[in-house]
Structure formats: C-alpha cells, structure tokens
Design brief:
37% of the residues lie in helices and 8% in strands. The chain is mostly helical. Helix 2 packs across helix 3. The longest helix has 13 residues. The structure holds a DNA duplex.
Length: 114
DNA sequence: ACCTTGACAGAAT
DNA sequence: AATTCTGCCAAGG
C-alpha cells in the first residue's frame, strides 16, 4: 500500500474521472478502502483550492450520491454546473446531474510497490 | 488538549 | 416515504 497522504489518493482518483463523467464522494472513499470517510474526500478537495501546486483536478465532476453539486459554492457562481453542461452532462434539474447516465465508478488504486 | 465543523452516506424514526 | 440522527476522520479554533 502506498502510504501516501489521504489527500493525494483522493486527488489521484479525481484526476482519473473521464471527461463527461461524474462520480461521488462515497465512491471515491470506497475506492480508497475507506467507505465511511466520504466526508474526508470533500475535505481533501477543499484543500485543493488553497494548494495550487496540485495538478489540474476536475473536482467539478465530483458530486454527492444524489447527483447534487454540493460543492458548487466553492467554484464561484455556477462554474461547476456550466463546466459539466459543457462536457455534455445532462441535468435532471438545476444543480442535479443525471448520474444514472454519467456516473463513473472509480477504479481501486493499485499499489505499484512491486 | 477538547470541542466544533464539514464538498457525505447510510441507518433509524 | 420523508426527515432526523449518527458514524467517520481530519483540521481549525
């Protein structure tokens, strides 16, 4: 297991979210082996705002299990929604994506410690 | 060192 | 079925 910081793992997963797809906090947490730490995922993403030294993270593709853009407030305005729409993501209603169509299940991280 | 908060999720009422 | 409550774990006050 890569004993990387919890944040780094989150970042790596988020960075793997395909264009036009979205995933959930819980799914990411689960992929990291800590299904019950979904809140930490959100916290980790929050840190990305301060940390500019991080790679381009499509954190706008991360929503909660209901498909709600719970973190849109941190993007300023409707940037999050607009970006998703621009990627072809369909919205059931404002601030709610159609995760039935665009949900992407993150892959479990492989520890490259071979 | 203790208590509160948080971009969630699932169980309980 | 809808709303409330609790669990989780890290960071900030």
């Amino acid at each position: 297991m890569a004993d990387k910081d919890f944040f780094d793992r989150v970042y790596r997963i988020v960075a793997q979210i395909p264009y036009g797809r979205v995933t959930t906090y819980g799914a990411i947490a689960e992929a990291l082996g800590v299904r019950r730490s979904a809140r930490m995922v959100g916290w980790a993403l929050n840190q990305t705002i301060e940390r500019e030294d991080l790679p381009d993270l499509p954190c706008h593709r991360v929503v909660n299990r209901e498909g709600l853009l719970t973190g849109k407030a941190y993007f300023g305005g409707n940037v999050m929604e607009e970006r998703l729409r621009q990627e072809g993501v369909t919205f059931l209603k404002d601030d709610q994506v159609d995760m039935e169509r665009h949900f992407w299940h993150p892959e479990v991280e492989d520890d490259f410690s071979s």
